[in-house]
Specification:
By secondary structure, the chain is mainly alpha-helical. Helices cover 53% and strands 5% of the residues. The structure holds iron/sulfur cluster (SF4).
Length: 308
């Protein structure tokens, strides 16, 4: 995959965009990690979650977010609190730079004093709030008002780079992400594509085990090249499953039939342990289910061969 050269466009050309969108939204709606801020469209609660999660693992943000909203349930109550209390809360919950607590307090004051307690609804206006940059403004517009553009974070870039061969170029990522976004559905779409990067298209991708809905269109899944801007070298094991499938087929093309113990070392030098018999049986059983291989018992031993 290219990561240099001039910005290209048309990475989605000839792709069935609607099917791609629908597959991802359905996958997300069937199952996703439950975070409490995904259950709300209150902009204040979402701003708090976005600012907290800028430097802290999502799982750790949950408790802090709930405690914070119990203490200061609205922008008005936060604005009325002494800033030192907010900073003390931030430190006590290990939420990173205290400046973020100060900005959040200041933003609550702006909402209360300048906006009559009503949050603005567009990414442009939201950026007027203290501490709210373009990324956060867009996330809040999407999650609170279903009114944002595509969110482009590291996870989203990794997904686009792998799935659609988008080069490592900020402008092309943005353009492609905005071409792909389900029109008028930024809330569910941005949650879904970030979830894909968070639980399936991770640095070590889990294409098959996470049931990635984009396997049939994904360039990386096709070629076995799972590198990405934040994954410069080929990730091992799970990411290379496709390659190992290919190796099994090629190996069995030159032998009539092999036992698992004969096949394993021929397809990977580090056969054994985590990538040993059990792993190979899983790979073979997928290929049997795909009607590419068959197994049979010969002299009391299971052998694997290409399906006739
Ligand atoms: S098939 Fe794999 S590499 Fe492609 S988008 Fe899905 S998880 Fe990422």
């Amino acid at each position: 995959m290219s990561d240099s050269g001039p910005a290209r466009s048309g990475h989605l050309e000839a792709k069935p965009i609607e099917a791609i969108q629908q597959a991802l939204v359905e996958w997300y709606e069937t199952d996703h990690r439950e975070y409490p801020w995904r259950e709300t469209d209150d902009p204040y609660e979402i701003v708090v979650s976005e600012i907290m999660s800028q430097q802290t693992q999502l799982d750790r943000v949950v408790d802090a977010w709930e405690d914070f909203l119990e203490e200061w349930p609205t922008a008005e109550s936060l604005a009325a609190a002494p800033r030192s209390d907010v900073v003390a809360f931030w430190s006590a919950h290990s939420l990173g730079y205290n400046n973020r607590a100060k900005y959040l307090h200041e933003a609550a004051t702006q909402i209360t004093d300048d906006y009559d307690g009503e949050f603005p609804e567009t990414p442009e206006e939201l950026q007027e709030l203290m501490g709210v940059g373009p990324y956060t403004a867009n996330a809040v517009a999407s999650f609170a008002f279903n009114n944002g553009d595509a969110v482009v974070d590291t996870n989203v870039k990794r997904v686009l780079y792998r799935a659609f061969d988008v080069p490592d170029d900020e402008a092309v990522f943005e353009a492609t992400a905005n071409e792909l976004i389900a029109e008028g559905r930024s809330r569910v779409w941005n949650n879904a594509i970030m979830e894909l990067g968070g639980v399936a298209c991770e640095k070590t991708p889990k294409c098959d085990t996470a049931g990635c809905p984009w396997r049939e269109w994904c360039a990386a899944y096709e070629t076995g090249d799972f590198t990405a801007p934040d994954v410069p070298t080929q990730p091992s094991f799970e990411g290379s499953r496709r390659q190992f499938r290919g190796r099994v087929i090629r190996t069995l093309g030159t032998y009539d039939a092999l036992t698992f113990d004969e096949l394993g070392p021929r397809i990977r030098v580090d056969y054994g342990g985590e990538t040993g018999r059990e792993w190979l049986e899983g790979l073979v059983s997928d290929l049997v289910a795909d009607e590419l291989l068959e197994t049979e018992t010969q002299n009391g031993r299971t052998v694997v061969r290409l399906r006739e």
